[in-house]
Amino acid sequence: MKSLLFMLWCIAAIAAAATTSSSLSSSSTTSSSASESSSTSSICAGNSATTRTEWCDYDIYTDYTTTVPDTGVTREYYFNLEQITASPDGRSRFAMAINGSIPGPTIEANWGDTVIVHVTNSLPTSVQNGTSVHFHGIRQLNTNPMDGVVSITQCPTPPGSTITYKWRATQYGSSWYHSHIGLQAWEGLFGGIVIHGPASANYDEDLGVMFLNDWDISTVDELYTSAQTDGPPTLDNGLINGTNVYGSDDSDDQTGYRWNTTVDEGTSYRLRLVNAAVDTHFKFMVDNHTLTVIANDLVPIQPYETTVLDIAMGQRYDVILTADQASVADSFWLRAIPQSACSENDSSNNIKGIIYYNGSSESTPSTAAYSYTDSCVDEDPSDLTPMVNPRSVSSSPLYSESEPVTLGTNSASLYRWKLNSTSMQVDWADPSLLSIYNDESMASTSTNDTSGVVELPTADEWVYVIIETELSVPHPIHLHGHDFVILAQGTGTYNSSSDDDNLLTTLGAASLPRRDTAMLRENGFLVIGFYTDNPGAWLMHCHIGWHTSEGFAMQFIEQYSEIQSILEDGDVEGEDYAQGLTDNCDAWTVYQEEYMVEEEDSGV
Ligand SMILES: *[C@@H]1O[C@H](CO)[C@@H](O)[C@H](O)[C@H]1NC(C)=O
Ligand SMILES: *[C@@H]1O[C@H](CO)[C@@H](O)[C@H](O)[C@H]1NC(C)=O
Ligand SMILES: *[C@@H]1O[C@H](CO)[C@@H](O)[C@H](O)[C@H]1NC(C)=O
Ligand SMILES: *[C@@H]1O[C@H](CO)[C@@H](O)[C@H](O)[C@H]1NC(C)=O
Ligand SMILES: *[C@@H]1O[C@H](CO)[C@@H](O)[C@H](O)[C@H]1NC(C)=O
Ligand SMILES: *[C@@H]1O[C@H](CO)[C@@H](O)[C@H](O)[C@H]1NC(C)=O
Ligand SMILES: *[C@@H]1O[C@H](CO)[C@@H](O)[C@H](O)[C@H]1NC(C)=O
Ligand SMILES: *[C@@H]1O[C@H](CO)[C@@H](O)[C@H](O)[C@H]1NC(C)=O
Ligand SMILES: *[C@@H]1O[C@H](CO)[C@@H](O)[C@H](O)[C@H]1NC(C)=O
Ligand SMILES: CC(=O)N[C@H]1CO[C@H](CO)[C@@H](O)[C@@H]1O
Ligand SMILES: [Cu+2]
After folding, report:
1. Where is each Plastocyanin-like domain found (predicted)?
2. Atom 5 of ligand 9, residue of closest alpha carbon
């Protein structure tokens, strides 16, 4: 039995943590009673360095898809989008950033908190960029209008305007937010999300989010011109959490500095890795150290050990680094190595940080990388076993269709990616939610072609999507509003009746990997399954920046009539979703006409 003292401590620690679970059936219109300083996040009672699986009255085995702590706490953030001159690797260039920093401020909350983010677009009208902020991997249960995707859930927010997002942290772990218009995310508009909760293994200290990026002296908008005609450009550098050197260590004109930290022998550290690159698949490692992997995307998994970790664009992995190699050396390289099988690069061996052992001289490491096979693959599915399995997979899904991936060119001879022969082309000024609110057909506005739009009218059914390619280019596939299970993943032609191609057969239902971003292999297939428990217009797309802009995307319209109800009934700080949507679109239309802004890509 829990003592009253413990209860009081718990309440004080997380500001009125409810001791009963709440079902998440209604839309999150409940306004919170408390507002806390967003810079400090307290840890729930019961969760300590030696009891990380516990979390007040919950734990790592709690089914977070149905049970979420009712903390009553709201974390409020103010983001200001600016044009800046940045020099993350010592070379100055034009960039865009939130509050002047790349990565932007980290959003921090406890599991069950409500998060409010006010985003002001202070970009100069000279760049003519509207904006939006997408909270990657956040489920947005019954809050689809807060998903932050232009042409789907909102119009771009023009310079001079502010948009407010509000969502509930129903999951916990590590993620990131980023702009979801054009290539703006890779001009610098991204930052971390840390949602404190239980963990599947113990660790002493939390080092926070660690971004792995590619970077170049040219901006992504400049590079996109050649990407559309000549294919993916070669980027000249990469960054570890927003910093790196440019040039080799023995060169006098090396610029920048490396990310580094000092560790204590015997102490273990949690790192929340995010691949935020525009077009680079990384292998991550810390020389001579073994990593314990405890989460993939926002899904806690049974801990497993590895020395070389594959991380695709849009994916996150939470890893524990135990400092147990002081006897080997004073300092070690931490590496993010671009895989040349799918990513061009000029500094593959120089995207590095440094781990110094406390008490030793801070010398340049002389350690060697683990050997690896250059490839753009996911971690082995048999290693990615979720801690919690909400429901078993149905053998009779509502929908099960193939989406072949092909590459073609448009009338201007620019590369366009296609799913089922359709390259997404949607209008910034006419998002799906506005069409649904006005009860219009869901045909894509420019082509009147509905094949890039799949309607899923029925709740609580399984949907299988088979994505296949005969081209030698792999793609990280990301779905909004859901974690999906991986039903099949491999190279060659998918054979649905072959046991070898069926993870349900080889792993069993309880061990299917579940996450929000997974690799479609080159000349291969990816079969994902998700459950229709979240009404909304949800995008599924390749997370390679060039490919999204070149149309590699489709949308699911899940429970059309429920979406209409959400638009009318849900609200943000007293303004209902429909009003917020139309006000923002009106502001965009005025701006777009005044400055004659042209939309030149897919619209997402
Ligand atoms: C960002 O900048 C705004 C002012 O431009 C400030 O009010 C806000 O507190 C800053 N937010 C963060 C998270 O640093
Ligand atoms: C943002 O501005 C840059 C520079 O003017 C431009 O190249 C790019 O197309 C714009 N992006 C969007 C999404 O408007
Ligand atoms: C990475 O940068 C973010 C934003 O500045 C910061 O919150 C975080 O602690 C940094 N992570 C590491 C591992 O240094
Ligand atoms: C280590 O990081 C600090 C900033 O935290 C920086 O000043 C220093 O130059 C870095 N060291 C190296 C070798 O780059
Ligand atoms: C290094 O060790 C000293 C002495 O044990 C300790 O005071 C200090 O906090 C440690 N520094 C780090 C960065 O762990
Ligand atoms: C450190 O790692 C390198 C490369 O994997 C290996 O060759 C070497 O034996 C390791 N050193 C020790 C002392 O474990
Ligand atoms: C593929 O496109 C065809 C033709 O537009 C359409 O009839 C079919 O429903 C589409 N299939 C999927 C799975 O989107
Ligand atoms: C799409 O259909 C609407 C209504 O049927 C029509 O008004 C519009 O002109 C069509 N657009 C195109 C590009 O064909
Ligand atoms: C698919 O797998 C089944 C079962 O193993 C096998 O009988 C069939 O020949 C395979 N089809 C192809 C095209 O390989
Ligand atoms: C274009 C380029 O420099 N590619 C290099 C990327 O990294 C691999 C591995 O180090 C090199 O073999 C490529 O030449
Ligand atoms: Cu792609």
Report:
1. 82-199, 209-359, 427-559
2. 498
